[in-house]
Amino acid sequence: MNGRVARRVALLALALSSSVALNPAGAQVALENIAVHGYGGWSFGRTTLNDNANWYLFGHQRGDYSHVEYALNIAIPVTDRLTIDAQPFWHAGHHANQTSSGIDYVFAEWKFSDFARLRAGSVKQPFGIYTEVFDVGTVRPFAALPQGVYGAGGMIGKAYSGIGLTGTAFSQGGWGFGYDLYGGGLETFEMDVPLQVAREGADTSRALNVAQSRALRDVIGGRFVLFTPVDGLSFGVSAYTGTRPLTVEQRRNTVGAQAEFLNDMWSVRGEVVQSTDAKLQEANGAYGEVAVRVTSGWQLAGLYSTQHTSLFSASQAALDANVARAPGLLEHTETGAGINYWFTPNFVLKTSVHWVEGNRYAYPDPVRLRSIVANGRLADRTTVVLVGSQLSF
Amino acid sequence: MVNFVSRARILRVALAALALVPVALSGALAQNAATPSYKLIVNASNPVSSLSRDEASRLFLKKVTMWRNAKPVLIVDQKTSSPVRETFTKEIHGRQVSSVTSYWQQMIFSGRAVPPAEKSSDADVAAFVAANEAAIGYVAVEAELPTGVKVVAVTR
Question: Is the residue at B114 inside a domain?
Answer without folding.
Answer: yes
